[in-house]
Write a sequence for this structure.
C-alpha cells in the first residue's frame, strides 16, 4: 500500500491556534477519480484568511470542517492522470490543501507554466495574493498621484500593493510592518517612500510623520489601531480598501472599533470591504499586467519557505505572528 | 433708527449646548449692499450639522465664529432691493442665518416660488434636507428591491429617505425613532413597513426583528449603537450612506466605534460618508422628481415650528434632543 499524509483541522482554536488544533495523519494514497488526476504536492500556501474559517461562526464562507483536511492553495505534479486534459509530469495549481497527495477533478486543476515564472510565484505574486492586491487597488479607486498607506506591507499582499501603487504613479507609498528588517526591506528593496515598525510607537504618530500631507488610500490588512490611525490621516474623499484584519482573527471578544468614525463624514471617506473570490474575473488582465513586471524584476517578491508538510501547522502559526516576509509557503 | 435682532454664538459649547452659548442682540437694521437686497426673515432652519460647526475643531468646514451670527438657511421677504434681479415683496432663500433682517448679496439669494409649494418646504423637503436624502440614496447605490433601514427616521432627512426609497420600489423600509408617537407616524402616515423606538430596547434586537431577511442599505443619521446594529444586519454587498451622527455631536471624549468592523470584510460592505454641499449639482433633477411627489401628496412631510426668533436657541437645543418630528423651523 502506498501512503500519503494529510493535515487535518483537529479542533476549532479559541484565540491563537496551537499545534494541538491540527492532526497529522498517514492515510492510504488516494486514487484519481474518473476524469481526474492524482497530484503529488510540491508546495502549499498558508494564509491569514484560513484563521477566520477555522472558527465555528460563518465568516464570508462556511467554516472549515473539523476532522477534514485543511483546504488551501497548493501546487503539485500530476503523477497519474485519468483526464485527457492533463499529462503525467505536468504541474498544476489546485485548492485541495494540506496533504502530500491529492485526487483532483480536472475542472479544479489549473496548469502552471513553470517556464514563465517559478512555480511558487503562482501561489503568491501571480496567484490569489497578487490578485488580492490588484483587486484592492481597484476597489480603492486608486489613481495616479495618490498617497497610499498599506499595513502589513511586508506581507504577501501588502508588498504587491505598495509596489504596484508606486509603479502606477502613486505620489508616495508608506508601509507599516512589525520589525526593523521588514521596514528596511520595504524601503531598500521594494521602493516604498517610507515605512515604520508599528511596534516602535503609536501608529497614528508614526503615520503622521511619514505622511505629512495625509493619505488618499489606505489598504487595510491589520485592523485595530491601524484603522483608526488611517481614518485620521485620510484626506478628503479618501478610500479604504478593507482587505483583512490579521490583528483580530484570534479575538475571543468583540474588538474595539475606530473611535473616529465621524471623520468618515467630515472627510467624505469610503470604506469598502472586498474578498478576492468576488474578483477572479480580473485574473486575465491581472496576469497581463503583473507577469511582465515580475519577469522584468520591476515587481519584486520574497518568500518565506518552510520545509516539510508536517511543519505546515507551525508555519501557519508563525504567519499569524508575522514571522514571514512576503509569501509564507510550505515546500514538500 | 430701525432695529433688527441677531442671535450670535456666544461661546463654544462643551458637551450639550445651553442657552448661555447664544446671545440675543438688538442692532441697527442693516442696509442692503450695492447690488444686494435687504431681507426680512420669515422662517429659519435649525439643523443638527450646526452643532458640529459650533466646536473649535474643524469638522468638514471651518467652525462658526464666536461673536458672529449663527449662519444657516432662512427664507424672507425682500423689503429693499438694490438689485435688478429682485423686486420688493419677492421671497428669497439665503443662508445668512439667525437674524430678523439680512443684507444679502444678489448672488447669495434664490427666489422661491411660493405658489408651487409652501415656503417652509424650501427649507425642508424641497431644500437641503430633502436634497440630503436624495443624494444619500445615490451614494448608497439604492436599487429597487433593496431593504432599507434609516435611523432618525422621523427627522427631516430620515422621513424623506424612507418615503423616497419606498416610492422607488424598496422591498421593505424600516425606521428607528425616539418615541412611540414618531414610530406611529412613520408607519401610519409615511408608509414605512416597520419602525421601532430605539429607547425600547437594544437596537440590534429590534432591527433583527423588523428585518428578518437583513438589510441592504443603511442610512446613518444617528451613530453609535445604531451603526453597530446596522453593520450586523447588512446583507452581502450592503451599503451605508453615512450622513450624520446626531448621537455623537455633543461628545467630549472619543466615542466607542463599531466592534464588528470585520463584517465589512465578511459581507463586502461599503461605508460612504457624504455631505450635501458636494452634491448641489443634483438640485435640478432632485426638484424635478421630488416637487411633483410633494404636490401630489405622495411624499409627505411634517414640520415642528417654533414661533419667535428669540426661541431659536431653544429650538436648536430641542432638536438635538429629538423633540421634533420632521423639519424643525423657527417662524419669525
Amino acid at each position: 500500500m502506498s501512503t500519503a499524509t494529510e493535515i487535518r483541522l483537529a479542533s476549532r482554536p479559541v484565540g491563537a491556534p496551537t499545534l494541538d488544533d491540527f492532526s497529522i495523519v498517514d492515510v492510504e494514497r488516494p486514487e484519481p477519480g474518473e476524469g481526474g488526476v492524482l497530484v503529488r504536492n510540491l508546495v502549499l500556501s498558508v494564509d491569514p484568511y484560513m484563521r477566520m474559517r477555522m472558527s465555528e461562526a460563518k465568516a464570508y464562507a462556511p467554516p472549515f470542517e473539523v476532522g477534514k483536511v485543511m483546504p488551501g492553495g497548493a501546487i503539485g505534479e500530476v503523477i497519474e492522470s485519468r483526464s485527457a486534459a492533463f499529462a503525467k509530469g505536468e504541474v498544476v495549481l489546485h485548492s485541495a490543501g494540506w496533504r502530500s497527495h491529492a485526487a483532483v477533478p480536472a475542472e479544479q486543476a489549473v496548469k502552471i507554466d513553470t517556464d514563465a515564472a517559478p512555480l511558487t510565484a503562482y501561489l503568491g505574486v501571480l496567484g490569489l495574493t497578487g490578485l488580492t492586491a490588484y483587486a484592492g487597488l481597484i476597489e480603492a479607486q486608486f489613481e495616479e498621484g495618490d498617497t497610499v498607506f498599506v499595513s502589513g506591507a511586508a506581507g504577501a499582499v501588502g508588498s504587491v500593493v505598495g509596489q504596484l501603487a508606486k509603479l502606477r504613479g502613486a505620489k508616495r507609498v508608506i508601509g507599516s510592518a512589525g520589525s526593523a528588517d521588514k521596514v528596511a526591506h520595504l524601503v531598500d528593496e521594494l521602493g516604498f517612500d517610507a515605512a515604520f515598525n508599528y511596534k516602535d510607537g503609536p501608529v497614528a504618530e508614526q503615520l503622521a510623520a511619514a505622511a505629512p500631507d495625509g493619505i488618499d488610500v489606505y489598504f487595510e490588512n491589520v485592523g485595530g489601531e491601524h484603522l483608526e490611525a488611517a481614518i485620521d490621516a485620510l484626506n478628503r474623499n479618501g478610500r479604504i480598501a478593507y482587505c483583512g484584519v490579521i490583528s483580530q482573527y484570534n479575538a475571543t471578544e468583540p474588538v474595539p472599533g475606530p473611535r473616529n468614525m465621524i471623520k468618515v463624514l467630515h472627510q467624505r471617506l469610503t470604506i469598502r470591504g472586498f474578498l478576492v473570490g468576488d474578483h477572479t474575473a480580473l485574473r486575465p488582465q491581472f496576469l497581463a499586467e503583473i507577469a511582465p513586471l515580475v519577469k522584468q524584476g520591476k515587481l519584486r517578491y520574497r518568500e518565506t519557505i518552510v520545509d516539510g508538510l508536517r511543519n505546515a501547522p507551525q508555519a501557519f502559526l508563525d504567519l499569524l505572528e508575522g514571522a514571514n516576509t512576503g509569501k509564507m509557503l510550505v515546500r514538500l
